[in-house]
Structure formats: C-alpha cells, structure tokens
Design a protein that fits this description.
The complex is a heterodimer.
Chain A lengths: L5 H35 L16 H6 L3 H13 L2 H17 L5 H13 L2 H11 L6 H8 L14 H26 L3 H9 L4 H12 L1 H16 L3 H6 L12 H11 L3 H29 L5
Helix pairs in contact in A: 1-14, 3-13, 4-8, 5-8, 11-14, 13-14
Chain B lengths: L1 H22 L14 E8 L2 H17 L3 E8 L1 H13 L6 E4 L4 H6 L7 H6 L10 H5 L2 E2 L8 E2 L2 E7 L1 E5 H7 L12 H11 L18 H11 L17 H15 L12 H9 L5 E4 L4 H7 L4 E4 L11 E10 L6 H13 L1 H9 L8 H9 L9 H10 E2 L10 H8 L2 H4 L5 H28 L1
Parallel strand pairs in B: 1-2, 1-3, 10-11
Antiparallel strand pairs in B: 3-10, 4-5, 6-10, 7-8, 7-9
Helix pairs in contact in B: 2-14, 9-10, 17-19
The chains are: A mainly alpha, B alpha/beta.
Chain lengths: 296, 452
C-alpha cells in the first residue's frame, strides 16, 4: 500500500490515539508521581503539607540508618528464592514437556497460585506456618520433627517467606519455560543423537542455550519484583517480623511514609532502591550481551 | 548500533517503570453534588460487624436528613491508615473520617482537621457533657498541649482493655473467684496462675495455663501499675531505664521463663494465645469491648472481668484506646459534616444500634451505666470497663508525641528478652539511646511542622 493513501493516513491517526492511551496513562500515573517524589526525596515532606528543600540530608541520614541496611539485607536475602525457583521450574517444565499423563492437570495445579490474590495466599500461608496448628508443622510432626514457630523466629522467617514466594511464582516461570522448550527445533536433538550425544549433553548444549533468553527474562523480572516484595510481608509479619528480620526495603519505606509522616525520607529510600535495581539490571544486560549468540 | 540504542531505550523504560511502580501512590476521589443535595464523604474502617453497624447508622442519618447524601468509603483496618494518608497527601481529605488520637497534633498543625468546638457546644441534639469527658479530651488541642482547648473530633468509641478470667476454670479447680474491687498483687496473681497451669490428662504436656500475654498489648498495665512509664511527663525523655520499669518488664518476662504460667517460648504470638483463650486453655486473658460479640458466639465457658494485678503502687492500671471521628478542614459543608460526626459519636439511637451489635461501649455516660447494669449482656462485671475509663485508664505513651516510631522501637527487638536470651537490664540499656534518638527526631519534626 502506498504511504500516502487516505486510508493509511486515517489509520495512522487512529493508531496514534491508541498509542496515546497508555502513554498518557504512564505520564500521569507514573511519570508525574515519579518526578514529584524525586523532588520529595530532597525535602522534609511529611505528607500533610510541609515540604521544605533540605538538600541531601535525607540521604546522609539514610546511610547511617541501621534499619535501612537491615531491610536491604533482608530483601536481598529473600532473593535467594529466585535461583531455587528457576531450577525447580525448569525441572518441572522438562517433566511436563515429555507429555506425561495428566500434563494439563499439572499445569493448572501449578498455575493456580499465580492467579490467586497475593493477600489471600499470604493469609493462607500465615496459617500454614502457625507454630501450633499450622499445616507445615502438623506435616513435620508426622515424620517426627517438631517444627519451629516459623514466622516468629529470626532464623526461620526469611526461609519461610522464600518458600512461599517460590511456590507462588513456580507456575508462571514453568509456563514460560514450557513455551520455550516447545520452540526448540526437534532437528537439533536428532542431529545431536546422530552424533552420539547423551541426554545430559543434549540438555547442556542444546536445551539450556536455547532457553537462555527466557532465563534472562525471568531473572531480570524476578529481581525487579523481588526488590519490591511487600504485600506478603505486610500481611504475614505486620510488624516486620521478630527483630525486624523480615522487613523488606519497601516495607520500611511504607512504614516511614505512612506510619511516621516521613514521606521525604521514604522518597529518598525509594530513589536509592530504584537506582539499585537500575544498576543491577544494567549489569545483567551487559553480561547477557557478552555471552549471547545469534542463530543463523 | 540500532540494536544497542533500542536496548538502552528498553532499559530506560524498565528503570522508569520500576521506580514509578515503587513511588506512585493513589488518591481519593471527590464527588461533586449533582441533585442539589449536600454530599459528604465518610471514610471509616472496622471489622465486618462494625462496618455493618456503621452503615446502618449512616443510613438512618440520611433518612433523618433528606438533604444530605453520604458517600461511604470503607476499608479493612490494616489498609486504613495508608488510604487516609494518601488522601491527605493528595489534599483530598474526606469530609468526615476516623483517625487515631495519636495524630491530633500532626493533623491540627498541618491543617487537616477542622475545629468543631462551636458546632459541638452549640448543638441541641448532642450534649457534650453526656459523652465521656476522658474521650472528648483525647481530641482537644490548644496548639500547645493536648487534652485542652478546641475540639478537633469526637470519640467513635473508647476501648478500655480489661483483664478477663475463665470463670469455669476457676470453679472446676475450686479456686475462689477474683475480687472485682480488690486487685491481685503480683505475687497473688502468679500464685493463682500457677495453680491453674495444669496437665489434666496426665500425658506430661500442659493442657491449661495461667495466661499468655502479648507484650505489645499487655505490658503497659504492669509497667504503669509499678509507677513507671515509657516516657516522662513532658514527653521529652525515654524512661525505660527506670528501675521500676525494669522490675515490671522482668516480672512480665518471668511469667514465661521463671514461673512458667504461660505456653512455652515462641508461642507468644497473639494468634496462638487468643486461640488458646477461645478454646478455654487460659485462665486470664485481656478483653476489650470489641471482643464481646465474638466471645458471646464462640466461648464455651463463662468469663468475667477483674482489675489488672497491681504492682508496687498498689493500684491497677490499663490502657484506653480510642478512635476519633474528625471533620476534614477542606470540607465545603462544615455544618453538615460536624453534624454527621456528632450523630455517629453521640446520637442516642445510633449509639444503641452500635451497642446492640456488641462492637463497642456506649459513648453516652448515661447509656453506659444502664448497659453496665444489664445482666443479660455478658460479662457481668462490665463496670470494670467503665472504671478503667473513669478511674485508672490511660492513653498509649506515644499518643502525646508526634510519631510513634520511638515507641515501636521498644517492641521491635524485644523477642530475645522474652525468650530469656537477653537480660532485661542489657536490653533497656541498649534500647534507651536508640529510642531517645527517634523521640528527639519526632520532637524536631513536630517543631518544623508547627513552625508555619
């Protein structure tokens, strides 16, 4: 079609309209608050009206704030669930990809947690982790282990949250892998077989590299999501856990902003967290570039 | 080249989305009136029974005032503060809303709350004298001191936190029931609790316990009745290193570790002890007026109230919580908004409905007296609730400070103390400077906010 036809131009105008909707939405609901809170980070904004420019004071205080470091540490600690989730999801996807009996049922089972509300799931797990009546401890009791009071113990609260996060995210990651696995050309495996490669070699040299873009995508999105973990913590350990050992950065930001009238300080923390995530993601992209290859 | 610039674009977009997602808040809505009616927004919270009761009360108000339409914004208790503060930050203050008395100072200084003294004192429907004085005083502020001056809200209710006991358990064990006028001493309390901590079926595991207090909500009565507090009178110094305070905290910790009258270590989570109380496994447990509906339905034993055990002062002590109903300073209909607030707080009929739902105490002194004497409502000794309000109850230590951060700090790291892993002395020595620093910051915040 010629670029100058009338239909083309009309359609193009409509196209802009369609594009405008999300762009405007983004500008109004993300960009404006973003810039506003970036400014807020340099003020003593209390959320009630007062907002005076105070330079870098928030940031100076921030780097002396032990709870900021603690919540940062907690947040990164809880990201340990990401590699665990990836390995498990890949194994599950491999199993389901073999076309074993009941594949569809399993897919649904694993996907249910993904579509469940995180708040509801958190309440469910809070009960499961209950020291006296919880499912987890009742199960452990069956095999003769006396389980701890999971969410009240500094040593177990983070692993407990990790376990839940893995369970919740498994279905989504698995589905992505399943799609990736199904798009690997069969001819590769046939050629490898002819050349005498065993199953492990085929997995290592064909499957893994072929699903690498998906792995990369999962890691990036999981780290971004993991850095913002909040709801499950707020629901399961409303005070930030014993000795603040389950409080994430976003939880701390929220407490400061909405509990203690320190929106300026909270904005400063959010800005630092945002920068952190940005840098980590940048590094990942760089690393991915170095080790990536092109199929001809 | 093109590829890499596209990638950078993607990265930028990603970064923006990340930060945006973290920072973006939400804001309330402002409805314009359409049919000439006065439109008010009323933002409130509560458990399901409370929400129902309040909705019904608002409906009745609308029926009595045909020209007013109330838009109700209700949220679950745990999300309420976030929503309210987002609304305030966006300057979309609801016309009428619930708020915590600890925030009177901050909200007044920042022009969030409207002074409703005139409307309240001039009202013919509501007599200010009829509402608990202690309740109204929580919402008075003259710009300097809390508790006096202009009225910035009315109590939705008062929540005296009393101590309850399992009457059936006492009777089965043949122990004389506690005197409702003479509190136990701490020693007596331990003694009785020890007798009631028993293994009933002989399997070597305890089946019932003396008690199981949650430190966040039950330490205050012990500290106060021992003549100590978290903060000095002027609200400038954290006083948890006072020997009297240490003694009280030690007594609290000993209940578990020395006297063993509670379920074992690690079970101090409220949920667990609350469940145990419901199952009839605990002899003593705190009871608030908001518990009455649930207890009426669920308890399979008789219970009643007693005064909290008295420490070295010889007097009981307890906290009285409250939630206020305030009027937003930006309201376009100050008169109607104040009327609605008064209706919710003090209207006889509305109050009766809330009291019948057993979700709160009557706000009216007169109604409360009749209510306390009514033996058809359990527990019998409801007078204890009223005594707490009138005689020996207090507000939370952080109510008089700008934020509660310093107070929360005390509870943040307390678990090792409760478990007996850290000594009480070491803990208060370590926590006091940290709390003092946060208190100083709160005082500074207060100064800055009231400067303008």
């Amino acid at each position: 079609m010629k670029a100058t036809s009338k239909l083309y131009r009309t359609e193009q105008r409509y196209a802009y309209l369609f594009i405008a909707a999300p762009v405007l939405g983004f500008l109004i609901f993300a960009m404006v608050p973003l810039i506003y809170s970036m400014y807020g980070a340099f003020t003593n904004w209390n959320g009630l009206g007062q907002m005076e420019f105070i330079g870098f004071e928030n940031f100076i205080n921030l780097f002396k704030d032990e709870y900021f470091y603690k919540s940062m540490y907690n947040t990164f600690f809880m990201m340990l669930g990401i590699p665990i989730g990836i390995v498990l999801a890949l194994l599950l996807a491999l199993a389901l990809n073999r076309g074993i009996f009941g594949t569809n049922t399993f897919r649904v089972l694993y996907y249910i947690p993904v579509i469940s509300s995180i708040a509801a799931v958190s309440i469910l797990w809070q009960w499961a982790y209950n020291g006296d009546y919880g499912l987890v401890n009742q199960f452990l009791d069956l095999i003769g282990i006396e389980g701890p009071n999971w969410l009240q113990n500094t040593d177990t609260v983070k692993p407990a949250l990790i376990l839940m996060a893995v369970w919740k995210g498994l279905g989504y990651t698995m589905l992505l892998y399943l799609a990736a696995l199904q798009s690997v050309p069969k001819t590769f495996y046939e050629a490898a077989k002819l050349d005498g490669a065993n199953a492990f070699q085929a997995f290592w040299h064909i499957t893994l590299p072929m699903v690498k873009p998906v792995t990369f995508f999962i890691i990036v999105t999981n780290i971004i999501g993991g850095a913002q973990i909040f709801t499950e913590i707020n629901v399961m350990t409303p005070t930030g856990g014993p000795e603040y050992s389950s409080a994430s950065v976003v939880f701390y930001i929220w407490q400061k902003a909405f509990g203690n009238f320190q929106l300026g300080y909270a904005s400063a923390m959010a800005l630092v967290l945002g920068l952190f995530i940005f840098i980590i993601t940048l590094i990942q992209f760089k690393m991915n570039e170095k080790s990536s290859f092109e199929l001809d | 080249m093109f590829k890499s610039s596209k990638k950078i674009g993607v990265i930028m977009l990603l970064a923006i989305m990340v930060i945006g997602a973290i920072l973006s808040g939400c804001s309330g809505s402002d409805k314009a009136s359409s049919d000439g009616k006065v439109e008010l927004t009323f933002m409130f919270r509560g458990n399901p029974q409370e929400l129902e009761a309040y909705k019904a009360t608002v409906k009745r108000y609308e029926e009595a005032n045909k020209d007013v339409k109330v838009t109700m914004v209700q949220t679950a208790p745990d999300q309420y503060d976030t929503k309210l503060k987002s609304a305030i930050a966006g300057r979309k203050i609801p016309d009428v809303f619930f708020y915590n008395p600890a925030q009177v100072k901050a909200y007044v200084n920042s022009g969030v709350l409207l002074d409703i003294t005139e409307q309240v004192e001039g009202s013919t429907d509501v007599k200010i004298d009829d509402i608990w004085e202690a309740g109204v005083n929580k919402y008075r502020f003259d710009g300097e001191t809390l508790g006096q001056g202009a009225i910035y809200g009315l109590p939705k209710d008062l929540g005296p936190f009393a101590l309850g006991y399992n009457k059936t358990m006492f009777e089965e064990a043949g122990i004389p029931l506690p005197d409702k006028d003479k509190p136990y001493t701490w020693d007596q309390f331990i003694d009785v609790a020890k007798q009631l901590t028993k293994d009933n079926d002989g399997d070597g595991k305890m089946d019932q316990y003396g008690t199981g207090f949650n430190v966040n909500w039950a330490l205050q009565p012990f500290v106060w009745s021992n003549g100590a507090d978290w903060i000095n009178e002027e609200g400038t110094k954290v006083t948890i290193d006072d020997p009297k305070f240490i003694e009280a905290l030690q007594f609290f910790v000993d209940q578990q570790n020395k006297y063993q009258i509670t379920p074992s270590i690690g079970d101090a989570q409220t949920l667990d002890t609350y469940q145990r109380w419901l199952k009839g496994q605990l002899a003593f447990f705190p009871v608030g007026p908001w518990d009455m509906a649930a207890f009426k339905e669920q308890l399979k034993f008789e219970y009643d109230l007693l005064p909290w055990p008295a420490g070295s002062t010889g007097e009981s002590s307890a906290w009285v919580g409250s939630l206020g109903i305030g009027v937003g300073a930006t309201t376009k209909h100050a008169k109607e908004a104040a009327e609605l607030a008064m209706y919710l707080s003090a209207d006889q009929e509305g109050q009766q409905a809330l009291v019948d739902a057993q979700v709160q105490l009557p706000n009216s002194v007169e109604v409360a007296d009749t209510w306390a004497a009514d033996t058809s409502i359990k527990p019998d000794n409801k007078q204890e609730f009223l005594d707490i309000i009138n005689d020996y109850g207090r507000g939370f230590p952080a109510e008089k400070t700008y934020t509660a951060e310093w107070y929360d700090e005390f509870f943040k790291n307390i678990q090792p103390v409760l478990d007996g892993k850290t000594s009480v002395e070491d803990y208060v020595k370590e926590a006091q400077p940290k709390m003092q620093k946060l208190l100083d910051a709160a005082i500074e915040q207060d100064k800055q906010a009231s400067k303008k």
